[in-house]
Each structure stands twice: as C-alpha cells, then as structure tokens.
Amino acid sequence: MVAMELVKDGDPHRPDADLTRALTRRAAEKGLVLLSCGLYGNVIRFLVPLTASDEIVREGMGIVAESLRELTGGRVQAAVGA
Description:
Largest sheet: 3 strands, antiparallel
Number of helices: 2
Oligomer: single chain
Mean pLDDT: 91
Structural class: alpha+beta
Radius of gyration: 12 Å
Low-confidence stretches: none
C-alpha cells in the first residue's frame, strides 16, 4: 500500500479534505476507484494488486494526475519529503 496526503498550498499543517473528496469523485467518473482515509480525510490510499501490469498502474496514475490537474487548474506541486 502507498498513500499520498493532499494539503493546501504545500503546507503539511493544512489538510485539504475538500480536494480529496473531489479527487475521489472525479477519478470515479473516469473509472478509477480511490480510497480516502486519514484523521482529516485528506489521504488517498493506493492498493495495487501485485499482479497488476505496469500498463494498468500507469493508466491509473494517469487518471489521478489528470484529475488533479483538472481540479487544481494545473497547480499540482510535487511531494515534499517523499
């Protein structure tokens, strides 16, 4: 399992639960099921089966990236401290 935390303006002390909910909805519209979790509801869990092909993983991550770009107007920052 791998997870990413969504925060406002790159500030790890400002969880972005609204963006997380919007991302799970947008991804679902595109055929990808995402699980949100975390104390503040701002974490997305990726539970990829070990048997998933690289092509399938790339497709799923492409949907995540595309959805985030659409929801943020292209203002997606790279992970901090990853």
